[in-house]
Amino acid sequence: VQFPAPQINGGVSRGKILGFTPGRPFTLRERPAMASPPGPELKKGDPDRFMNHDKAIFGIERPHWTGFLAKDQRVDLVAHGEAVAALRPRVGGGYSLDHFLAPDPADIVPLVDGIVAKHGAKGPLTVFAATGGHLESVLAERGFAVPEFFVPIGPLIEWREGNTEPVGRSEAIHSLLWL
User: Fold this and answer.
1) Does residue 78 contact residue 42 with C-beta atoms inside 8 Å?
2) Is there a contact between 21 and 169 (Cβ–Cβ < 8 Å)?
């Protein structure tokens, strides 16, 4: 079993109380709507390839999660090189980058730049990026900041119960799939 939960900076988490062990931390990053420079053209992501990509990177098949994103007509599934991201529209405008997979870190910058160019002026862009990871640093360079309300909460921790290794530990997982 795996679930994300806030750790509340310096506090004890429900996950720890329940006997779960901490996994990877994820930090909320948000970019307000603003004009964006042109970016690389993105390809439409292939739903089957997206789900197979997730299975290979995450370590298990998750058709109820990735299938939902891949087949929902509201989701903008975009790709650059081997990297793929699912952008789910948010209430009130903007997009949540719900799943960002990049086996080759070199594909992160062009995918982020393409997403910002395509959707950055329409509304806020949000993502739970792996804390301290390459994606988080790229986002910070492009105007994604930690929202004020999130600072005291402090990263979300993916809590784990039982033998879940190595599922979900790939460095090619750059964001939290938050549905």
Assistant:
1) yes
2) no
CA nearest to 38, candidates 92, 110, 91, 101: 110
The Cα–Cα gap between 41 and 126 comes to 20
| Residue 27 DSSP SS3 | strand
| 140-153 average pLDDT score | 92
151 contacts: CB under 8 Å, gap ≥ 6: none
Q: How does DSSP assign 41-100, residue by residue?
A: PPEEPPHHHHHHHHHHHHSS--HHHHHHHHH-TTSEEEEETTEEEEEEEPTTS-EEEEEE
pLDDT digits (tens, 9 = 90+) for 8-36: 555 555 656 666 777 788 899 999 999 98
